[in-house]
Amino acid sequence: MNMKTTILGTTVGFGLLVGLASAAMAEEITIATVNNGDMVRMQKLAPQWEQETGNTINWVVLEENVLRQNVTTDISTGGGQYDIMTIGTYEAPIWGKNGWLTSLEDGMSDDWNKDDLLPAIAGGLTVDGTLYAAPFYGESSMVMYRKDLMEKAGLEMPEAPTWDFIREAAQKMTDRDADINGICARGKAGWGENMAFLTAMSNSFGARWFDMDWKPQFDSEEWKNTIDFYLGMMEESGPAGAANNGFNENLTLFQQGKCGMWIDATVAASFVTNPTDSTVADQVGFALAPDNGLGKRGNWLWAWSLAIPSSSKKVDVSKDFISWATGQSYTELVAGEEGWANVPPGTRKSLYENQEYLDAAPFAKMTLDSINSADPQNPSVQEVPYTGVQFVAIPEFAGIGTQVGQQFSDALAGNQTAEQALENAQSITSEEMEAAGY
Amino acid sequence: MARAISPRKKMMWTVLAWFFGLLIFFPILWTFLTSFKAEAVAIADPPVWFFFDWTTENYTAVLGRSNYPLALMNSIVIAVGSTLLGIIIAVPAAWAMAFVPGRRTKDVLMWMLSTKMLPAVGVLYPLVLIAKYFNVMDSRILLVVILMLINLPIIVWMLYTYFREIPGEILEAARMDGASLRNEIIYVLTPMAVPGIASTILLNIILAWNEAFWTIILTTVSAAPLTKFISSFSAPEGLFYAKLSAASIMAIAPILVMGWFSQKQLVRGLTFGAVK
Predict the structure, then answer these.
(1) Which CATH architecture has domain B66-232?
(2) pLDDT tens per residue across span B40-51
(3) Cα nearest neighbour of B43 on chain A
(4) Of A208, A276, A319, B120, which has the most beta carbons under 10 Å away?
(5) Would the CA dihedral through A181, A187, A193, A196 be positive or negative?
(6) pLDDT given for residue A394 in this prediction
(7) Which domains does chain A have, with CATH numbers?
(8) What residues have CB less than 8 Å from B169, skipping those under 6 apart?
(9) What is the pTM of this model?
(10) Helix, coil or strand: residue A230
(11) DSSP structural state of residue A364
């Protein structure tokens, strides 16, 4: 063998080795997520992480319920199709408890500061002291209102209104001839739709889903007051066909100037103040969700978070991506590319200490106050055996919540009375809970 | 002799036919129009019909965010593959039931149809576990087989109905001329049943194209067809109607064009036998 061949052989061999080594290091991960604005932005910016690390991402973007179905099937069969998934505050504690998720207590990058997370948000993603999901953006609910209509009604919105004030203001703002409805609120049936609103509202009326023996409480005076108040207010001042309205329908109504007030997710603030889509962008004011003087406000708590299923075989790379996407430097990256108003809100204390953000997002303080005032461990005035503000963190809740939601949606549509709806809700919940062995 | 229809009556029927035609076509037209609107215009109330700033930005956004060519190719392979595989299995089955029926043939046919009554979710876990065992999750071959199994009862039923219209004597004559069973099916029966087979193929391609339970749940990236592509454009928080419409138009366009070109064949096949 001559010298030339030896050198050639060595060079080729070395090249192959380097190639193999880098191929072994670079991994491909699959991320399942929902199609919310902040997630789409993350997908757009992710190539930066891919370039930095040499890894690649397969994105699977799905409708919320389809995502839930896909992901549950995958996890429960140990499919391992997904390495990272977007989950909510409802799933995190249940799936964490089932051993379906990988702990994020270690292995995250050094600059991913866990202590910087808002305690209320991190608390909702923690089971027995272990964090199972990293919050990507957090939200609560609050009142969004039209300053011009409020002024016309001769009223001034307090920073922390009561339900009575909201009802009175709604009546005064309503002008059916001009197609203006004093109040817009969710009516579409679903555990994450009308039941998110009504459960949070019921907390401020002193109601609860279950007593300490897991007995359903829809036959209580507190629930009756909640539903009577809700139906009464919506009848006086709500839009026509309110029983079909969810987040997007109410957003549309508000943006087109057809709502005096809208009580919904804090994340809506950036939509209603965006002049491209909203005709009332410069007239929007914010207030805390209403209360009844009982010590609890009617606001909820939710965080879209990133978690790693226990079936994933690429845990290290996945943790690296989550550290990047939910870390402080990502916030700065978004601010640099798209402005401070577009950074994912509601997860980190440091964001609310950043003057640039506070200047760019007029709703920032209200969002933070709303999030801080929600307590998933003690959601109601009374003692409860469950966690979750606008939901009950048990696997059966999604089914029960949706069935109960149908009853209240039906009552809102005028197909049955409040009493009938509550009676049905009580019997549905009792049956389901009994069948589930509670 | 054909019955004479007065011009007035004829016009009335024409108007009525157009009315129902447009009524059925309306959702597609509305989706098409919405796909060219800005998100804020798409949800405007009262609705905006034709006079708005037409924009192709939704199509650009949809194409920029997802791999449309891959999804399209997957849909084509899965729909055509599952249908052809189904036909290969169903032709002999339908032949047997149409020309050599036994005492229990009717029961077998009903039993086959009854499998369509089974809620898909009932067999979700066993199928996922089997797919996992054979390491075929997220593969086209898995969906080809599953969709073939799902549509097989319909394919057999349709072919059975068409085959029954063909006189058994012709096959007998072929047999007397010395044709083997294989040749009888391939060279005598199949050519005579071409319209029926063609419409069965077309209808099943459409059914497989639109199937949105298994195709979404058994795929992630590599085998994900257009149903999964559409599903990615709806959002729980935020406006999405215009982009969803653009994605829907892109997903239905190929099958719509196919339907257009094969309209005659499809109608002929579907009404085959009914007018005798």
Answers:
(1) Orthogonal Bundle (1.10)
(2) 788 877 788 888
(3) A252
(4) A208
(5) positive
(6) 92
(7) 27-132+302-360 (3.40.190.10), 141-300+387-435 (3.40.190.10)
(8) none
(9) 0.82
(10) helix
(11) H
